[in-house]
């Protein structure tokens, strides 16, 4: 192996250690003095062998050269990998790519409202998938896989697995216990290819809403899917949950806009920022947004009043991931929901009861973030918590029914 093949990774590793603590000079000095001494650790009172590295300081005379080179190499590789993962502005701000396919926020008039024809592809870790699933669950259009069929169930769904090593493009694949119903694809790219004459060349994202009968993509944009699903219903009672009531539409649209900008996308702006100023802007916006939500919820049950609306559905996925994932992983935990935003905490637990605890697995989502987004966590170590139990999330599979939590419309 040539020196270049191992030196650059080593320098990157050294940079991480050196930058972490400004007092590492004494460590380097000790390493130089005792470079040939055996390196031992203590386990249960007994010495245990450990590796001492390649001892670069024996043949690199300048600590300054080592630190400067390692820091430059690490930072350069990190920025390259992060720009591939998350597009950046010239100022280092994360810029989310726009959706590429969809029919807008209106249910296509040519598609009949029938059960068993329309299918959602959803990933547990993805907050955009979560909000689609939550909206469909609140409207009784998406029920648990283990339950008996219900007359209101408009959609079926597949739970995707996050595994960028197995995926041919993107990060979503299928497991044998929840296979693809359209074409038995190995990953989501296969579904996109099946639905696209000549093959698909864009981003393979979820959520994805597909017409199984015609192998057609209806939409890959979560906001549009949420809105269009509010226009269809199989409820035999003659009424349906309305998450976008006419009288509140202006307020809902305005609330969704700032919740998305400051909170939903803001946490990603913190995690994917490549400059200090970009990070600080995003982090400040996150807590301004959360404070605004907490203030609203101090005097009313939900964000836009006494009933659940789309605005609550937009906030929920970020809120349930915040303390358990985003606060540490995206470096935005200066304040946390469980300790600093009591009204959001109360609201969040009620939304989890109304949507059902089976809709989201926090521990699995944490593993996905910490292992799949490896430019932010190259060591792949996953924190032990906080878990759903630590955060006091409600348990029990099914959603709690409470008609007073909703606005209703005639169908």
Automatic annotation (TrEMBL):
Signal peptide: which range, if any?
A: 1-25
Q: Which domain of life is it from?
A: Eukaryota
- PROSITE patterns in the record, alphabetically? GST_CTER, PROKAR_LIPOPROTEIN
Alphabetical list of InterPro entries matching this protein: Glutathione-S-Trfase_C-like, Glutathione-S-Trfase_C_sf, GST_Omega-like_C, GST_Omega/GSH
Keyword Metal-binding, does the record have it? no
This entry carries the following GO cellular component terms, namely: cytoplasm
> Which is one Pfam family of this protein?
GST_C_2
| Molecular-function annotations in GO | glutathione transferase activity
Q: Which UniProt keywords are given for this protein, alphabetically ordered?
A: Signal
Where does the record place the GST C-terminal domain? 245-373
PANTHER family, alphabetized: GLUTATHIONE S-TRANSFERASE OMEGA-LIKE 1-RELATED, GLUTATHIONYL-HYDROQUINONE REDUCTASE
Specify the protein name. Answer: GST C-terminal domain-containing protein
């Amino acid at each position: 192996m040539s020196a270049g093949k191992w030196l650059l990774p080593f320098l990157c590793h050294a940079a991480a250690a050196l930058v972490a603590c400004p007092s590492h000079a004494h460590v380097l000095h000790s390493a130089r003095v005792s470079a040939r001494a055996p390196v031992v650790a203590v386990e249960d009172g007994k010495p245990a062998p450990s590796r001492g590295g390649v001892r670069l300081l024996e043949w690199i005379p300048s600590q300054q050269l080592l630190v400067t080179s390692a820091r430059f190499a690490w930072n350069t590789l990190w920025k390259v990998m992060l720009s591939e993962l998350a597009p950046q502005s010239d100022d280092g701000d994360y810029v989310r790519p726009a959706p590429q396919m969809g029919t807008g926020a209106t249910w296509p008039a040519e598609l009949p409202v029938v059960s068993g024809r329309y299918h959602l592809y959803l990933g547990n870790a993805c907050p955009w998938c979560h909000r689609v699933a939550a909206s469909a669950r609140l409207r009784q259009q998406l029920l648990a896989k283990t339950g008996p069929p219900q007359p209101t169930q408009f959609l079926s769904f597949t739970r995707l697995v996050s595994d960028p090593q197995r995926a041919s493009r993107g990060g979503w694949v299928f497991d044998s216990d929840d296979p693809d119903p359209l074409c038995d694809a190995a990953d989501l790219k296969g579904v996109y290819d099946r639905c696209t004459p000549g093959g698909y060349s864009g981003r393979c994202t979820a959520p994805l809403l597909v017409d199984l009968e015609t192998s057609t993509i209806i939409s890959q944009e979560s906001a549009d899917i949420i809105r269009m699903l509010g226009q269809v219903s199989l409820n035999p009672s003659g009424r349906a949950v309305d998450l976008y009531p006419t009288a509140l539409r202006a307020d809902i649209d305005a609330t969704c806009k700032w919740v998305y900008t400051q909170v939903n996308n803001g946490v990603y702006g913190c995690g994917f920022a490549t400059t200090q100023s970009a990070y600080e802007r995003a982090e400040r916006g996150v807590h301004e947004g959360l404070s605004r939500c907490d203030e609203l919820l101090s005097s009313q049950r939900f964000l836009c009043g006494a009933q659940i609306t789309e605005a609550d559905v937009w906030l929920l996925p970020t809120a349930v991931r915040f303390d358990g994932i985003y606060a540490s992983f995206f470096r935005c935990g200066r304040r946390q929901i469980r300790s600093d935003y009591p009204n959001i905490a109360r609201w969040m637990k009620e939304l989890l009861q109304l949507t059902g605890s089976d809709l989201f697995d926090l521990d699995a989502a944490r593993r996905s973030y910490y292992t799949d987004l490896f430019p932010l966590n190259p060591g792949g170590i996953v924190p032990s918590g906080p878990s759903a139990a630590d955060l006091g999330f409600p348990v029990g599979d099914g959603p709690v029914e409470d008609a007073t939590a909703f606005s209703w419309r005639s169908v």
